[in-house]
Design brief:
Oligomer: single chain
Radius of gyration: 14 Å
Structural class: alpha+beta
Distance between the termini: 27 Å
Strand content: 35-45%
Number of helices: 3
């Protein structure tokens, strides 16, 4: 749900900027506590943007999603270690 929510935000922002994005893919690693109830302790979410999109615009879209728009992230425990990264392939 988190990857989907943020992906929609990122695509919307890049499209509103009229940037030539061809595709977006996400890969997420989830880290859990060893003991029951095996709570999520960390998330690494990587975006792969295909198209001639400036890296600074991708970074800004991810930042805005995380800080302002993604309701899924804002519904999760703020103690979760959440990291984002991205790659742009023209």
């Amino acid at each position: 749900a988190l990857a989907g929510c943020m992906a929609i935000d990122v695509v919307d922002m890049i499209e509103k900027g009229r940037l030539p994005m061809k595709a977006l893919a996400c890969d997420m690693r989830v880290f859990r506590a060893a003991d029951t109830p095996r709570k999520i302790t960390g998330l690494d979410l990587h975006f792969l943007v295909t198209g001639d999109v400036p890296a600074d615009r991708v970074a800004r879209a991810i930042e805005l999603s995380r800080e302002k728009y993604c309701s899924v992230w804002h519904s999760l425990d703020p103690a979760i270690d959440f990291k984002t990264s991205f790659t742009v392939n023209p």
